Amino acid sequence: MDDRILVAGMALSTIAATGLAQDAVLLVADSGNDTIAAFDPDDGSLIDPAFIDLVPLDAGTPKGIAQVGDEIWVSDQIRDRVDRFTLDGDHIGAIGGQFPGGGLDNVRGVNVIGNEVWVFNAGTNNDAPGNAIVRIDPTTATIIGNIPLGASPWFALPYNGEVLVTIDDQLDRYDEAGNFLGQFFAPGQLNFLQQTNETSAGSVLVGAFSSPSGIWEISLDGGLLDVIAGTADSGARAGWELGNGSIMWTNGDGVNISDPVSGATTNVLDGNGQFITLLGEVAGCYPDFDGDGQLTIFDFLAFQNAFDAGDLLADCDGDGSLTLFDFLCFQNAFDAGCE
User: Fold this and answer.
1) Is 63 in contact with 274 (CB distance < 8 Å)?
2) Per-residue three-class SS string for 267-333
3) Which of 117, 177, 188, 204 stands 20 to 30 A from 161 (CA)?
């Protein structure tokens, strides 16, 4: 008998379900209620509809969110600024604004790229650069330059050592220095692309606001796969894969969750949903190898498949090679469970 199958079989008597430990929340900008809402990253349940109340700041259209060190940054598309908050939601200050020299106008998403924060700008008021990525030093919270673009940008996603930038109907590849590397996703297939996020399988979810609208999945090599069931014709802006495999997504109706198999969809927050980000980190659990939040025989099967494929994710003991000892290591981790 194959030793790997024997080890997996021995573990059948010890299988037990356990949840993944979490120390994180999903934050969603809600421009309908001028708040930042907080959700559980595993099942998308609403934790706090007003984790940050933006009403006292006379918010216009809160759009993007990023965790920048020990701060939360929120871009406001209409007010032409980025507001800074503590991790508890207390306002610290703002970058830009509606005054000469503010440097931002018609801003969209915001994200940490390398050692900088990139903000996506489309207007020229306030001495802003027009269609460009505005570069900000996170240590001083000051604008340090920009990367001119030929069309209107929305967001950037660190991806496989590069940066994917949504610009109108395409996804372009850049490096962290802002150098153009080529196209990742060819234009003309989708329209008015907004936020992108990576799935656990390495594909990309992108919100297409205009027809054919929805949350679309793009393969690792830039090929268009399919629209996520339940999101078509929705004016979608952003999609996020939850820990349980469902897709949280936003549009003008607020925040929604769809089952990607059945398409069953639930609205979990009424408002005007914008971009999504993770605050904090979700604690991983190595023996939950299939990532479904439970420890079952399917984790052993997923581990064995990775082992057979030569994937070093199955190098449980970290010695740089795949041996029987990795199966023993995996079984020990499985028996210990996840807290």
Assistant:
1) yes
2) EEEECCEEEEEEEEECCCCCCCCCCCCCCCHHHHHHHHHHHHCCCHHHCCCCCCCCCHHHHHHHHHH
3) 188
Q: Are 104 and 311 in contact (CB under 8 A)?
A: no
Contact 109, 97 (CB under 8 A): no
Q: Two tokens at 221? A: 């090599």
The partner residues of 269 in beta bridges, in order of sequence, read: 255
- Residues β-bridged to residue 240: 248
Of 113, 115, 116, 128, the closest CA to residue 165 belongs to 113
Q: For residue 69, what are its two tokens?
A: 């060190």
Please report the domains of the chain, with CATH numbers, ordered by start residue: 3-18+286-336 (no CATH), 23-281 (2.120.10.30)
Cis peptide before 212 (omega within 30 of 0): yes
The answer to whether the CB of 166 falls within 8 A of the CB of 177 is no
Q: Label residue 140 left, alpha or beta by phi (over 0 means left) and psi (-120 to 50 means alpha).
A: alpha
Q: What is the pLDDT along the chain (339 residues), one digit of tens a residue?
A: 444 334 334 333 333 333 333 468 999 999 999 999 999 999 999 999 999 999 999 999 999 999 999 999 999 999 999 999 999 899 999 999 999 999 999 999 999 999 999 999 999 999 999 999 999 999 999 999 999 999 999 999 999 999 999 999 999 999 999 999 999 999 999 999 999 999 999 999 999 999 999 999 999 999 999 999 999 999 999 999 999 999 999 999 999 999 999 999 999 999 999 999 999 855 557 788 876 667 888 888 888 988 888 877 788 877 767 898 888 888 988 888 876
What tokens does 116 get?
């900088």
174 DSSP 8-state letter = E
State pTM to two decimals: 0.78
Note whether 172 and 159 are within 8 A (CB).
no
